[in-house]
């Protein structure tokens, strides 16, 4: 049996800002059995248009199918597959770490090394906010792990093309 070559892909999708568009996009993945890694939606510089960043593990055939299916959804204006070498992608993470008076300076130093910010301090914990690549966020967690991670939340990735290239919607 041939082994399928799955790899991580980032799709940037411009959509009309209408009720239920996220549900429709997610349902398309569910119906076809595609595995979503993350789906993030946000406003754009153009009123009435949102950008959805989709991260998916798929082979080349599946990613082509996903792109074609997304383009068939009426409120979808444009779908672009972002290449890793021409893309800036970041995620947000907040982590609550055990920290008391004895080890708080070390926890804060660790956050500073990763250009993360301490956003809350309590008697027995600190909350750290970090943005970056998945690798950077994983490395920060590895450093914080010995102190004790109490809670963790991480967003999906958002991404843009490097340089002057934009993703202006067609027919607008």
UniProtKB/TrEMBL annotation:
InterPro entries: Acetalactate_synth_ssu, Acetolactate_synth/TF_NikR_C, Acetolactate_synth_ssu_C, ACT-like_dom_sf, ACT_dom, AHAS_ACT, AHAS_small-like_ACT. One of its GO terms (molecular function) is acetolactate synthase activity. Residues 10-84 form the ACT domain. Keywords: Amino-acid biosynthesis, Branched-chain amino acid biosynthesis, Transferase. It catalyses: 2 pyruvate + H(+) = (2S)-2-acetolactate + CO2. Its EC number is 2.2.1.6. Gene3D superfamilies: 3.30.70.260, ACT-like. Chain A, domain 2. It holds the Pfam family ALS_ss_C. It is an enzyme of class 2 (transferase). Pathway: Amino-acid biosynthesis; L-valine biosynthesis; L-valine from pyruvate: step 1/4; Amino-acid biosynthesis; L-isoleucine biosynthesis; L-isoleucine from 2-oxobutanoate: step 1/4. The keyword Transferase applies. Belongs to the acetolactate synthase small subunit family. Catalyzes the conversion of 2 pyruvate molecules into acetolactate in the first common step of the biosynthetic pathway of the branched-amino acids such as leucine, isoleucine, and valine. Dimer of large and small chains. This is Acetolactate synthase small subunit.
